Amino acid sequence: MRGSLVVANWKMHGCRASVSDLVVGLKAELDDDIQAAVVVCPPYLFISQVADALSGTAIQWGSQNLSEQAEGAYTGEIAAPMLAEAGCQFAIVGHSERRLLYAESDQQVAAKFAAAQGVGLTPILCVGESLQQRNSGEALDWIERQLQAVIDAVGMGAFAEAVVAYEPIWAIGTGKTATPEQAQEVHAHIRQVLAKADPVLAEALQILYGGSVKADNAAQLFAKADIDGALVGGASLNVAEFAAICRAAV
User: Fold this and answer.
1) Hey, which residues does 229 pair with through a beta bridge?
2) Region 210-224 average pLDDT
3) In the chain, which residue ranges form alpha helices assigned H by DSSP?
4) How far is the C-alpha of 192 from the C-alpha of 248, rounded, in Å?
5) What is the pLDDT of residue 46?
6) How far apart are CA 108 and CA 99, in angstroms?
7) Is the pTM of this model over 0.85?
8) Which positions are catalytic?
9) Is 157 buried (19+), middle (13-18) or exposed (0-12) by CB count in 10 A?
10) What is the pLDDT of residue 218?
11) 43 phi/psi in degrees, rounded to 5
12) What is the pLDDT of residue 56?
Protein backbone atom coordinates (compact mmCIF):
# COMPACT_ATOMS: atom_id res chain seq x y z
CA MET A 1 0.00 0.00 0.00
CA ARG A 2 1.26 3.47 -0.90
CA GLY A 3 2.07 5.76 2.00
CA SER A 4 1.19 9.45 2.07
CA LEU A 5 3.74 12.19 1.45
CA VAL A 6 3.41 15.94 2.01
CA VAL A 7 6.13 18.23 0.65
CA ALA A 8 6.58 21.89 1.60
CA ASN A 9 7.97 24.09 -1.18
CA TRP A 10 8.97 27.35 0.51
CA LYS A 11 9.97 28.87 -2.86
CA MET A 12 11.98 32.14 -2.57
CA HIS A 13 10.71 33.08 0.88
CA GLY A 14 12.33 33.43 4.26
CA CYS A 15 15.30 34.64 6.22
CA ARG A 16 17.31 32.91 8.93
CA ALA A 17 14.92 34.05 11.63
CA SER A 18 11.72 33.08 9.82
CA VAL A 19 13.16 29.72 8.77
CA SER A 20 14.09 29.05 12.39
CA ASP A 21 10.55 29.91 13.48
CA LEU A 22 9.07 27.64 10.81
CA VAL A 23 11.23 24.68 11.76
CA VAL A 24 10.61 25.11 15.49
CA GLY A 25 6.89 25.29 14.82
CA LEU A 26 6.89 22.23 12.59
CA LYS A 27 8.79 20.18 15.14
CA ALA A 28 6.21 21.12 17.74
CA GLU A 29 3.14 20.60 15.55
CA LEU A 30 4.05 17.46 13.60
CA ASP A 31 3.58 14.97 16.39
CA ASP A 32 3.09 11.21 16.42
CA ASP A 33 -0.45 11.62 15.08
CA ILE A 34 0.95 12.53 11.65
CA GLN A 35 0.82 9.45 9.43
CA ALA A 36 2.26 11.06 6.30
CA ALA A 37 5.95 11.38 5.55
CA VAL A 38 6.88 15.08 5.54
CA VAL A 39 9.56 16.86 3.50
CA VAL A 40 10.52 20.55 3.51
CA CYS A 41 12.29 22.22 0.59
CA PRO A 42 13.78 25.56 1.64
CA PRO A 43 15.79 27.98 -0.52
CA TYR A 44 19.33 26.74 -1.13
CA LEU A 45 20.88 29.10 1.39
CA PHE A 46 18.86 27.68 4.26
CA ILE A 47 19.27 23.96 3.54
CA SER A 48 22.13 23.56 6.01
CA GLN A 49 20.21 25.49 8.67
CA VAL A 50 17.17 23.28 8.15
CA ALA A 51 19.30 20.13 8.12
CA ASP A 52 20.88 21.01 11.46
CA ALA A 53 17.50 21.82 13.01
CA LEU A 54 15.72 18.72 11.71
CA SER A 55 18.50 16.20 12.33
CA GLY A 56 17.15 13.38 14.45
CA THR A 57 13.49 14.09 13.61
CA ALA A 58 11.20 12.28 11.18
CA ILE A 59 10.94 15.38 8.96
CA GLN A 60 13.12 15.14 5.85
CA TRP A 61 14.42 17.91 3.64
CA GLY A 62 15.18 18.50 0.00
CA SER A 63 15.91 21.02 -2.72
CA GLN A 64 13.60 23.06 -4.91
CA ASN A 65 15.80 22.55 -7.96
CA LEU A 66 19.25 21.37 -9.06
CA SER A 67 21.56 21.50 -12.04
CA GLU A 68 21.71 18.69 -14.54
CA GLN A 69 25.51 19.13 -14.47
CA ALA A 70 27.63 17.40 -11.80
CA GLU A 71 30.26 20.16 -11.67
CA GLY A 72 32.00 22.75 -13.81
CA ALA A 73 31.85 26.35 -14.95
CA TYR A 74 28.13 26.91 -14.38
CA THR A 75 27.96 30.11 -12.39
CA GLY A 76 25.05 30.25 -10.00
CA GLU A 77 24.08 26.59 -10.32
CA ILE A 78 23.89 23.96 -7.55
CA ALA A 79 24.92 20.38 -8.35
CA ALA A 80 23.29 17.20 -7.12
CA PRO A 81 26.42 16.02 -5.25
CA MET A 82 26.39 19.28 -3.25
CA LEU A 83 22.78 18.68 -2.24
CA ALA A 84 23.52 15.10 -1.25
CA GLU A 85 26.42 16.31 0.89
CA ALA A 86 24.00 18.71 2.61
CA GLY A 87 21.87 15.71 3.57
CA CYS A 88 19.03 16.30 1.12
CA GLN A 89 16.89 13.27 0.41
CA PHE A 90 14.65 14.82 -2.27
CA ALA A 91 14.87 17.29 -5.15
CA ILE A 92 11.97 18.93 -6.97
CA VAL A 93 12.45 18.85 -10.75
CA GLY A 94 10.38 20.41 -13.49
CA HIS A 95 8.29 22.71 -11.32
CA SER A 96 6.04 24.78 -13.54
CA GLU A 97 7.79 27.98 -12.47
CA ARG A 98 11.09 26.53 -13.69
CA ARG A 99 9.50 25.43 -16.96
CA LEU A 100 7.71 28.76 -17.52
CA LEU A 101 10.07 31.39 -16.12
CA TYR A 102 13.38 29.70 -16.97
CA ALA A 103 12.35 27.84 -20.13
CA GLU A 104 13.33 24.41 -18.86
CA SER A 105 12.49 21.86 -21.55
CA ASP A 106 11.16 18.36 -21.01
CA GLN A 107 14.61 17.08 -21.92
CA GLN A 108 16.37 19.31 -19.39
CA VAL A 109 13.92 18.24 -16.71
CA ALA A 110 14.65 14.60 -17.56
CA ALA A 111 18.38 15.30 -17.23
CA LYS A 112 17.81 16.84 -13.81
CA PHE A 113 15.74 13.83 -12.81
CA ALA A 114 18.67 11.59 -13.76
CA ALA A 115 21.20 13.83 -11.97
CA ALA A 116 19.19 13.64 -8.75
CA GLN A 117 18.94 9.87 -8.87
CA GLY A 118 22.63 9.59 -9.71
CA VAL A 119 23.55 10.70 -6.18
CA GLY A 120 20.71 8.96 -4.36
CA LEU A 121 18.22 11.84 -4.22
CA THR A 122 14.56 11.06 -4.86
CA PRO A 123 13.31 13.35 -7.64
CA ILE A 124 9.84 14.85 -7.29
CA LEU A 125 8.86 15.21 -10.95
CA CYS A 126 6.31 17.97 -11.53
CA VAL A 127 3.93 17.77 -14.47
CA GLY A 128 0.92 19.90 -15.33
CA GLU A 129 -1.02 21.89 -17.87
CA SER A 130 -1.92 25.51 -18.47
CA LEU A 131 -5.49 26.81 -18.42
CA GLN A 132 -5.42 27.06 -22.23
CA GLN A 133 -4.35 23.42 -22.55
CA ARG A 134 -7.06 22.32 -20.13
CA ASN A 135 -9.75 24.30 -21.92
CA SER A 136 -8.69 22.94 -25.31
CA GLY A 137 -8.80 19.35 -24.12
CA GLU A 138 -5.04 18.85 -24.42
CA ALA A 139 -4.24 18.48 -20.71
CA LEU A 140 -3.84 14.70 -20.56
CA ASP A 141 -1.77 14.54 -23.76
CA TRP A 142 0.47 17.34 -22.51
CA ILE A 143 1.11 15.58 -19.23
CA GLU A 144 1.77 12.29 -20.99
CA ARG A 145 4.41 14.03 -23.11
CA GLN A 146 6.14 15.35 -19.99
CA LEU A 147 6.20 11.85 -18.47
CA GLN A 148 7.36 10.23 -21.69
CA ALA A 149 10.40 12.53 -21.90
CA VAL A 150 11.63 11.13 -18.59
CA ILE A 151 10.83 7.53 -19.56
CA ASP A 152 12.75 8.00 -22.82
CA ALA A 153 15.76 9.41 -20.97
CA VAL A 154 16.08 7.09 -17.97
CA GLY A 155 13.63 4.23 -18.45
CA MET A 156 10.48 3.27 -16.61
CA GLY A 157 12.46 1.54 -13.87
CA ALA A 158 13.70 4.91 -12.61
CA PHE A 159 10.20 5.67 -11.30
CA ALA A 160 10.72 3.03 -8.61
CA GLU A 161 12.78 5.66 -6.78
CA ALA A 162 10.80 8.78 -7.66
CA VAL A 163 7.67 10.75 -6.87
CA VAL A 164 5.38 12.50 -9.36
CA ALA A 165 3.51 15.71 -8.53
CA TYR A 166 0.59 16.90 -10.64
CA GLU A 167 0.35 20.67 -10.49
CA PRO A 168 -2.20 22.34 -12.76
CA ILE A 169 -0.42 25.56 -13.66
CA TRP A 170 -3.68 27.51 -13.53
CA ALA A 171 -4.10 26.59 -9.85
CA ILE A 172 -0.65 27.54 -8.54
CA GLY A 173 -0.70 30.65 -6.37
CA THR A 174 -4.04 31.72 -7.85
CA GLY A 175 -6.32 30.55 -5.08
CA LYS A 176 -8.01 28.27 -7.61
CA THR A 177 -7.87 24.56 -6.99
CA ALA A 178 -8.71 21.66 -9.25
CA THR A 179 -11.76 19.91 -7.90
CA PRO A 180 -11.01 16.56 -6.28
CA GLU A 181 -12.65 14.95 -9.33
CA GLN A 182 -10.48 16.91 -11.79
CA ALA A 183 -7.34 16.07 -9.83
CA GLN A 184 -8.27 12.39 -9.54
CA GLU A 185 -8.85 12.16 -13.30
CA VAL A 186 -5.32 13.36 -14.00
CA HIS A 187 -3.71 11.29 -11.23
CA ALA A 188 -5.42 8.17 -12.57
CA HIS A 189 -4.23 9.05 -16.08
CA ILE A 190 -0.64 9.44 -14.87
CA ARG A 191 -0.81 6.01 -13.26
CA GLN A 192 -2.36 4.51 -16.40
CA VAL A 193 0.36 6.00 -18.64
CA LEU A 194 3.09 4.49 -16.48
CA ALA A 195 1.21 1.21 -16.10
CA LYS A 196 1.57 0.61 -19.83
CA ALA A 197 5.25 -0.04 -19.15
CA ASP A 198 5.11 -1.47 -15.62
CA PRO A 199 1.76 -1.89 -13.86
CA VAL A 200 3.28 -3.02 -10.56
CA LEU A 201 5.61 -0.03 -10.37
CA ALA A 202 2.85 2.36 -11.44
CA GLU A 203 0.57 1.09 -8.70
CA ALA A 204 3.28 1.67 -6.07
CA LEU A 205 4.19 5.19 -7.25
CA GLN A 206 3.30 8.12 -5.01
CA ILE A 207 1.52 10.85 -6.98
CA LEU A 208 1.05 14.17 -5.21
CA TYR A 209 -1.32 17.03 -5.98
CA GLY A 210 0.02 20.58 -6.03
CA GLY A 211 -2.03 23.69 -6.68
CA SER A 212 -3.36 25.91 -3.89
CA VAL A 213 -3.66 23.04 -1.41
CA LYS A 214 -5.04 24.30 1.91
CA ALA A 215 -6.28 22.85 5.16
CA ASP A 216 -9.88 23.26 4.07
CA ASN A 217 -9.55 21.27 0.83
CA ALA A 218 -6.81 18.76 1.67
CA ALA A 219 -9.02 16.00 3.09
CA GLN A 220 -11.30 15.98 0.03
CA LEU A 221 -8.30 15.74 -2.28
CA PHE A 222 -6.58 13.04 -0.25
CA ALA A 223 -9.75 10.94 -0.16
CA LYS A 224 -9.37 10.21 -3.87
CA ALA A 225 -7.89 6.83 -4.78
CA ASP A 226 -4.87 8.04 -6.74
CA ILE A 227 -3.92 11.15 -4.73
CA ASP A 228 -1.17 10.18 -2.31
CA GLY A 229 -0.35 13.55 -0.76
CA ALA A 230 0.52 17.09 -1.71
CA LEU A 231 3.20 19.46 -2.91
CA VAL A 232 2.32 22.56 -0.90
CA GLY A 233 3.44 26.09 -1.76
CA GLY A 234 2.12 29.16 0.05
CA ALA A 235 0.28 27.25 2.77
CA SER A 236 3.53 25.57 3.82
CA LEU A 237 4.78 28.93 5.15
CA ASN A 238 2.10 28.83 7.84
CA VAL A 239 2.86 26.21 10.48
CA ALA A 240 -0.72 25.63 11.62
CA GLU A 241 -2.04 25.44 8.05
CA PHE A 242 0.69 23.08 6.89
CA ALA A 243 0.31 20.85 9.96
CA ALA A 244 -3.43 20.60 9.29
CA ILE A 245 -2.70 19.51 5.70
CA CYS A 246 -0.27 16.86 7.00
CA ARG A 247 -2.90 15.56 9.45
CA ALA A 248 -5.39 15.20 6.62
CA ALA A 249 -3.03 12.85 4.74
CA VAL A 250 -3.65 9.31 6.00
Assistant:
1) 5
2) 94
3) 16-29, 47-54, 80-85, 96-101, 106-118, 131-135, 139-154, 180-195, 199-204, 215-222, 239-248
4) 26
5) 98
6) 10
7) yes
8) 95, 167
9) exposed
10) 96
11) -60, 150
12) 92
